[in-house]
Amino acid sequence: MLRKFQEQLEKLKKRLLKMGSSVEEQLNYTIQAILEENEEKAQRVFELEKTVDKIDLKIEKNCQKLFALNQPVALDLRLIISAINLSTDLERIGDLSVNISELFLKTKRKPEFIDEIKFNEMSTCALKMYKDALDSFINNDAEKAREVIKDDKILDELKCY
Questions:
Q1: Do residues 134 and 97 lie in contact, with contact meaning Cβ atoms separated by under 8 Å?
Q2: What gap in Å lies between CA 121 and CA 8, rounded to an integer?
Q3: What angle do the packed helices 119-138 and 142-158 form, to 10 degrees?
Q4: What pLDDT, in 10s, does the model give residues 111-122?
């Protein structure tokens, strides 16, 4: 029984990683669409949204099943609750990518302010933070989480123009 539960937790982590990878693709396509003024890349964000939404539903059902059948406690309970919160946050990030891509497709050109800010540096830093945050959760890596906090300060400095 315990082995089956551990397998289900690993499956949950794999789904989170898959969802995180899809959202990362959305972010990359959104950034590239704007910088390159590329409508095809903006359209790709919408295609990935369907995948993200499906995985989000699977994660939600997986977590409900884990609660109902196993009554998790301590670390396992925190993992499942964190997984629910993470999938919600990932889905929201994906939605924001869709919103930005929609706005880009309406104008079909990058906003004028992009050249006035450090967009490349900011997006590179934000993507690194995103990857590191996801990795720190999946691998339970506290040091990686501390890196994200340090990078957040760097990102804050970049947005001061």
A1: no
A2: 39
A3: 160
A4: 888 888 889 899
Q: Which two tokens stand for residue 105?
A: 């497709």
Q: Which residue in 18, 57, 43 sits closest to 105, CA to CA?
A: 43
Q: How does pLDDT run across 12-71, given as a tens digit for each residue?
A: 999 999 999 999 999 999 999 999 999 999 999 999 999 999 999 999 999 999 988 888
Amino acid at 75: L
159 CB burial (10 A radius; 0-12, 13-18, 19+): exposed
Q: Kindly report the three-state secondary structure assignment for every residue of the chain.
A: CHHHHHHHHHHHHHHHHHHHHHHHHHHHHHHHHHHHCCHHHHHHHHHHHHHHHHHHHHHHHHHHHHHHHHCCCHHHHHHHHHHHHHHHHHHHHHHHHHHHHHHHHHHCCCCHHHHHCCHHHHHHHHHHHHHHHHHHHHCCCHHHHHHHHHHHHHHHHHCCC
